[in-house]
Design goal:
By secondary structure, the protein is mainly β. It has one domain: Pectate Lyase C-like (3 Solenoid). It has 5 helices and 26 strands. The chain has a 16-stranded parallel sheet that branches. Helix 2 (about 55-60) links the parallel strand 1 and strand 2 (about 65-70). The longest helix is centred in the C-terminal third of the chain and has 11 residues, at about 310-320. The chain is globular. The protein starts with 5 loop residues before the first helix and ends in a 26-residue tail after the last helix. Its cofactor is Ca(2+). InterPro entries: Pectin_lyas_fold, Pectin_lyase_fold/virulence, Polysaccharide_Lyase_1. Its main location: secreted. It is found in: Secreted.
Length: about 350
């Protein structure tokens, strides 16, 4: 068995003893994000793309806690750049919540960002196909929790050269363009209790040391993907449920590009490959030619894995995504509940048949 780098051991040892959590219940490597704690509370008072009271204006300065006095979609005319030291509380919005559509939300190069209950839906309204729904490239200390990320063109989530990130309790679904879920490099990263739906690949692409726990992955062509020639990393893959759908050509691609350079602790994972409309999978922990670890590389991974794979399906289908659940997320969840009989990979959000040109009505 390949010995772990002492630095990685140090990171793993620190993970369960975070001095102050981003919020009560925050987990993983992004839980150390401080956000806008102690800063100014700024209210978003309209759905305008820019100007006084807009979301773009609210996130233009650091050390802020963003709350919403309005509900509905904010349609971007260009990517919106976040500042460092922000807490974005989407659940503060009245009514049916808040969403961002038609452009990238970017935390590129920033640090200490907490985002909760925010819908980020890029789609073809964004003319720049090289952008993603959410970009945290070169960012540090970021946590997304109960977010809904759909219709990403380059990736749903771009986290190249990102350090200390968590994506939890979120829906990452229906990427268009490249049809990729998430691309992570550098890390470490934690993906916890997420729902991944109808992507060609990268759910996520993990070029880092990763915790992947209690996720549900549906209608994949390639699901959890390792670095291939991109480097040697460690992966804790625990109690996840992989469910094939109409777009799945090879069920064994639940684990993809697991070469001999990767070290993997794989336990409690299930695969439902028969597409018969019933959740009735079997244990599946085959990790290709990767080095098999006898224990997780991160010291808190087993403590996080409180749900079995089957219980994770129940929990994630009920709880993942921004609250309250809206039309588009309901569509996504219902596709998964077909357990193999429904689902496709899209190139344009309008093809879903969901209202508002595919974006749904918030």
């Amino acid at each position: 068995m390949r010995l772990l780098n002492p630095c990685l051991l140090a990171i793993g040892a620190l993970s369960p003893v975070v001095a102050a959590l981003a919020f009560d219940g925050a987990v993983g490597f992004g839980a150390i994000a401080t956000g806008g704690t102690g800063g100014t509370t700024v209210h978003v008072t309209n759905l305008d793309d820019s100007g006084s009271g807009s979301f773009r204006d609210a996130v233009s300065a650091s050390n802020r806690i963003i709350v919403f006095d309005v509900s509905g979609y904010i349609q971007l005319s260009s990517a919106v750049s976040l500042s460092s030291g922000l807490t974005i509380n989407g659940d503060s919005a009245p009514g049916n919540g808040i969403g961002i559509m038609g452009g990238e939300v970017s935390a590129s190069g920033k640090s200490n960002i907490i985002i909760r209950h925010l819908r980020m839906r890029q789609g073809t309204l964004d003319s720049d196909s090289g952008k993603s729904a959410f970009n945290m490239g070169k960012a540090t200390n970021v946590i997304l929790d109960h977010c809904s990320v759909e219709y990403g063109q380059w990736d749903s989530i771009d986290a190249v050269s990102a350090v200390n990130i968590t994506v939890s309790n979120s829906i990452i679904a229906l990427p268009i363009g490249q049809q990729f879920g998430a691309h992570v490099e550098t890390g470490p990263s934690t993906f916890y209790r997420n729902l991944w739906v109808s992507a060609h690949n990268r759910q996520p692409l993990s070029k880092d040391d990763t915790q992947y726990i209690n996720n549900v992955i549906y209608n994949y062509q390639a699901a959890y993907t390792a670095a291939n020639t991109g480097g040697d990393f460690s992966h804790d893959i625990i109690n996840n449920y992989f469910i094939t759908g109409p777009s799945t050509t090879s069920s064994s691609d639940a684990f993809y590009q697991m070469n001999s350079g990767q070290s993997v602790y794989s336990s409690g994972n299930y695969l439902d490959s028969n597409k018969d409309g019933v959740l009735n999978g079997a244990a599946y922990n085959t990790v290709g030619s990767a080095t098999v670890l006898s224990a997780p590389w991160a010291s808190d991974s087993l403590a996080l894995a409180t749900l079995s794979a089957a219980d994770a399906v129940t929990y994630v289908l009920q709880n993942a995504g921004a609250s309250p659940r809206d039309e588009l997320d309901t569509f996504v969840v219902n596709v998964v509940k077909s357990f193999g009989t429904d689902g496709t990979l899209y190139k344009n959000q309008a093809n879903t048949g969901v209202s508002n040109g595919g974006y749904g009505t918030v």
